[in-house]
Amino acid sequence: MRTVAWLLVKLALAGSILLLFYAVYLDGVVSERFEQNRYQAPALLYSRALNLTPGSLTRQRVEAELRALEYTSSPGARDQGEYNARDNAILLHRRAFDFADGFEPSQRLLLQFEGSRLTDVLAWPSQQPLEQARLEPQLIGRFAADSGEDRLLVSLEEVPQLMQDTLLLVEDQDFYSHLGVKPTAIIRAAMANLAAGRTVQGGSTLTQQLVKNMYLSRAQNLSRKFKEALMALSLDYRFSKDEILEAYFNEVYFGQDRGHAIHGVGLASQYFFGKAVEDLSAAEIALLVGMVKGPSLYDPRRQPENAIKRREVVLRLMYEKQLISQVHYLAALDAPLLRRESSRLVLGDRPDYVDLVQRELRQLVPGREWQQTGLRVFTHLDPYLQAQAEQALQRRGGRVDVAELEGAIVVSDHQQGVIRALAGTAGDTTGGFNRALDAKRPIGSLIKPFTYTLALEDPASYRLETLIDDSPLTLIDERDREWTPRNFDGEFKGPVTLYQSYIESRNVPAIRVGMDIGVGQVRERLYNAGFATGTHAYPSLLLGAVDMSPVEVSQIYSVLANRGEQQRLTSIEAVSTHWGQQLYRQQRRAQRVFTETSAYLNTFALQGVVQEGTARALTTMVGETGLAGKTGSTNELRDSWFVSFDDRLLTTVWLGRDDNQPIGLTGSNGALLVAADLWNQTGVEPLQRTLPATLSTGAFDRLSGLPVGLECGGALRLPSHQYREPANGRCAGNEDDEEDDDEPNWLQRLFGG
Glycosyltransferase among the record's keywords (predicted)? Predict the structure, then answer.
């Protein structure tokens, strides 16, 4: 007996030592993850916030935004996310939101309209005029963490006290007094389960539930329960109760959104109710706390009857324990189960724009360490413009009969230097090859404004009225072969004004000007405008023999639209962690590429392209709006380009085939039609350009380019550095009257004569 007893003592001692080492090991596992890698959280992407600015917004835009944000119609708009549309006003209750520049509480607003235009924004019910107000942004996408879990991390301070108290009431009333486990509860649950022959009761504390969710599998066996208890003891010893409770609120599981697991009350509040956790009502808190017991069993969308019954049980407990008053209890019982009907966290796919954001984000926040804190990425996407751009591209200007015709469209705000919308396919928008970013094709005549704008910086040599020779020209190309460029119409007009050459997109005059000022200089201005890919300085560059994507074209043209100043186009405004720590904030930096005067002259000419040049069809379809634009086509009509801009937006459209076969469309009867469709939907803000002090508006003979009287009919009306009205007000150019006959002509400048 003594031998057996001694053996048992040694076995007990060995077991204790092994248990001690095992407990130390588990303690290390618990501590390491809880301290260093507690969660994996996604990057959540938001659109721009719609500024409610009087004068510039239509009622249609506001109501479309409210629908997209899932605001619901309600007579008094008393709860967040509700609105009431009246004859000439909209009363709405704007949700609270943590914007990129700070948190704003919920607010009731009265929007007043005259006709369709927003005229006043008032606080309600005080009716105090507001200088500014905005709606919260839309959630447009997410980049999942490696775990596939979605959550929006919140601090314990953000979780309402009522929610904290209710959770402890329902799940663990002794949370702040026990050591992580409750032996009596475990024994009681074991006996009940043994009597029932199945699992009917759980004895886990919140700490044990957290351990199970963070560290263990869902297997139901004694060894896992033993391991769970040891780890819960360790967690309770190492960390404060508040830290454990905060972790629980961020870890608890609430169901699936397609292939993404919804974890934490922060994201669950958005998913089920479309609001921040701070703003949950008693009824909403009761539903979420009730779902902890069984997310699938009490899913309010799939199992609404179960969810209502469970909510009622939790509400009754809240009332009995005096967490809520009788008035609030009765009101909560009658409250709708859900205020957000959609079963998807992100409404509407914008894969092409999200692709752009992802590429930029990789540069701003490299690696995958961001998963520990999650990211909130505030983008410049305008969902309304995005929808209009996608629809316009899908319609393809009515050219859907062209076999395998594809396309891309980019809409940017050239004043702010940001991309508002981007679509990289003319088919469905489920993702794939993003032509807006990756389809690099020759840009054709889109290059010509860069040649002319550069030339116009030297008014002694080039002005809009300057004559350029449009006659046959032979050059030696990069392969030492003779190259004889032709115009698109196959004709040569002899001397033509630079302006006429510009609006008709004539090739030979553009080449003569480019050769005179230097092909290398044109290439250098492309680089200054933001084109980042190396290219040659051969004469063919002057006719657009350089490959660019639609985004790259938008980048360089934003300089022409923005009065000659370059800003790097971006899709991201700010990046912060889920905790609110700012990691990046866009800083707008502009640098001058062209002089203000030459940029003004270029814009004037581009308006002429639309009014009377190759893009005059746009005026027919959109009206006399003052839009500026440039058509572009490539050899054998393989590519159709059109770039256009008003005072705020710049739109780039490309049409072509992925196999680079001809499509039979020029810029004017292909891409232009798509742009016209878009402008008709979005409206046009007329260009506001002030005539520089160095220029005056003059009248010039269309054939000779010489000044004529201001009253002469049919004359070109052009801004010029050197206009002097003839004393006799003649209406026909007369070279004998010119005083600057000694000025070298284009041929002398080209060959140094």
Answer: yes
Q: What is the pTM of this model?
A: 0.90
Q: Among all chains, which residue has been given the structure tokens 């949700």?
A: 95
Q: Say how far apart CA 624 and CA 487 lie, in whole Å.
A: 28
Question: Cα(455)–Cα(463) distance, rounded to whole angstroms?
Answer: 8
Residue that the structure tokens 């770039």 belong to: 643
Angle between helices 448-455 and 519-528 (to 10 degrees): 100
pLDDT in tens, 164-217: 999 999 998 999 988 878 876 555 655 555 555 544 445 588 888 888 887 765
Q: Rounded CA gap, 630 and 627, in Å?
A: 10
Contacts of 109 (CB under 8 A, 6+ apart): 52, 91, 92, 93, 94, 121, 122, 123, 124, 130, 133
Asked whether the beta carbons of 224 and 216 are under 8 A apart, the reply is yes
Q: How far is CA 512 from the centre of its chain?
A: 42
**Cα–Cα distance for residue pair 510/543, rounded to 1 Å:** 8
* pLDDT tens-digit readout, 267-302: 999 999 988 999 999 999 999 999 999 999 999 999
**Which residue, 464, 501, 468, 394, is CA-closest to 717?**
464
- Phi–psi pair at 248, nearest 5 degrees: -60, -45
Q: Are 634 and 544 in contact (CB under 8 A)?
A: yes
Model confidence pLDDT, tens digit, residues 684-694:
999 999 999 99
**Do you find a cis peptide bond into 509, omega within 30 degrees of 0?**
no
Q: Which are the contacts of 303, defined by CB distance < 8 A and separation ≥ 6?
A: 296, 297
Cα separation, 601 vs 497, in Å, equals 14
Distance CA 44, CA 35 (A): 23
Q: Read out DSSP for 301-359?
A: TT-HHHHHHHHHHHHHHHHHTTSS-HHHHHHHHHS-S-S---S-SS-S--HHHHHHHHH
Neighbours of 414 (CB within 10 A): 23
Tokens 């507690």 sit at which residue? 38
What is the set of active-site residues?
171, 445
Cα distance between residue 109 and residue 130, in whole Å: 9
Residue 258 gets the label, from left (phi > 0), alpha (psi -120 to 50) or beta, of left
Bridge-based pairing of strands 441-442 and 547-548 is antiparallel
Cβ 109 vs Cβ 92: under 8 Å = yes
CA angle, residues 456, 458, 460, in degrees to nearest 5: 115
C-alpha span between 241 and 244 (Å, rounded): 5
